[in-house]
Amino acid sequence: MNKIKILVTGGLGYIGSHTVVELINSGFEPIIVDDLSNSELFILDNIYKVSGQKPKFYKSDICDINSLKSIFEENKDLKACIHFAAKKAVGESMEKPLLYYRENLVSLLNVLDLMKEYKIHNFVFSSSATVYGEPEHLPVQETFPIKKALSSYGSTKQMAEDILEKVAATRWLNALALRYFNPVGAHLSGLLGELPKGIPSNLMPFITQTAIGIREVLTIFGKDYNTPDGTCIRDYIHVVDLAKAHVYACNFLLNGKGNLPYDVFNIGTGEGYSVLDMVETFERVNKVKLKYKFGERRNGDVASIYASSQKANEILGWKTELSLDDMVKDSWNWEKNYRNQ
Ligand code: NAD
Ligand code: WQD
């Protein structure tokens, strides 16, 4: 039987590569388009090592509609698209708003235009918990208000969700926006993981790079937040659990289960952990001492945010399987493996 083909933009990136593996494991045929602007070609070989299959890969910028059209032309039997490709550095987005609006929105519009032209109706979008800003209640539910984003990055995700809702209302598109909380961890094999460029701004790569000696010391941003230990609380989710949510989302769309042309789902664990919890868990599980100090609060950080994932649990049938211990163990394993290659 022919496998169902799914276009995966940004499929060599951190979340995309793990999702490609899970799609293959579930019997789908992912087709990857990635311009390698934030990934490396060896990830494609490692996808093969992990899954036993080497997906069709196009090195192409999806902001270039002509090259993207040739990919759609060659793959007329696509049944869905998962759209990861985007720029994602919050700090950089404040310095280069035009770059972020262009990259994140032109790419989305190009994909949607071609999906319409080639009659591909199912779309899964990478959104972010950042759309909520500072929530008034916890855990965060999908019905909570979306406040004006502080960063240009967050603004592109809010605008993208709005675009999807309006386009889906015209009834040719079924779209799901998955609002990821804080993805960490790596593939159990140690062959796939996050590849941050330069100094990491996210906590987990900063922790692993400090542990391995690339960074001298981890600065914990703020110790006087209104939280039990004074450091910020987030909902960290293992990237493999997050990747699997995309398989559930595709199955949901392809089986025509949605009553709505557009819907949003939080993808988190429902548990909140502080920065100090992360440091302590990393040290305990990996038996590594981490050098850290306290610094000023970071601009734009919210004190606490964690998800209610009840909607995704009940409607998509998805739930997380991996623990915080798995997250810190797999992140560390990946860092060591990657540096020793
Ligand atoms: P990533 O940078 O590792 O992956 C994105 C991939 O897209 C990269 O491989 C990059 O080379 C590719 N890409 C970027 N622009 C492209 C373009 N114009 N054409 C073709 N390929 C392009 O990022 P990630 O962490 O895997 O994130 C994937 C998606 O999830 C993004 O949309 C991001 O905004 C969203 N997201 C990420 C997080 C997170 O913390 N990692 C949280 C919430 C949402
Ligand atoms: C986590 C916690 C920091 C680094 C960001 C984006 C969000 C989403 C996920 C894309 C915070 C603290 C961090 C460090 C620290 N990405 N920290 N020292 O800010 O929750 O979310 O990534 O959509 O949009 O904003 O994640 O990993 O940067 O920070 O103390 O060196 O770790 O203050 O409390 P964040 P993060």
TrEMBL record:
One of its GO terms (molecular function) is UDP-glucose 4-epimerase activity. Pfam families: GDP_Man_Dehyd (PF16363). It is an enzyme of class 5 (isomerase). This is UDP-glucose 4-epimerase. The keyword Transferase does not apply. Homodimer. NCBIfam families: galE. InterPro entries: NAD(P)-bd_dom, NAD(P)-bd_dom_sf, UDP_G4E. It comes from Apibacter muscae. Its EC number is 5.1.3.2. Gene3D superfamilies: NAD(P)-binding Rossmann-like Domain, UDP-galactose 4-epimerase, domain 1. Keywords: Carbohydrate metabolism, Isomerase, NAD. Pathway: Carbohydrate metabolism; galactose metabolism. One of its GO terms (biological process) is galactose metabolic process. It catalyses: UDP-alpha-D-glucose = UDP-alpha-D-galactose. Its cofactor is NAD(+). Belongs to the NAD(P)-dependent epimerase/dehydratase family. Residues 7-330 form the NAD(P)-binding domain.
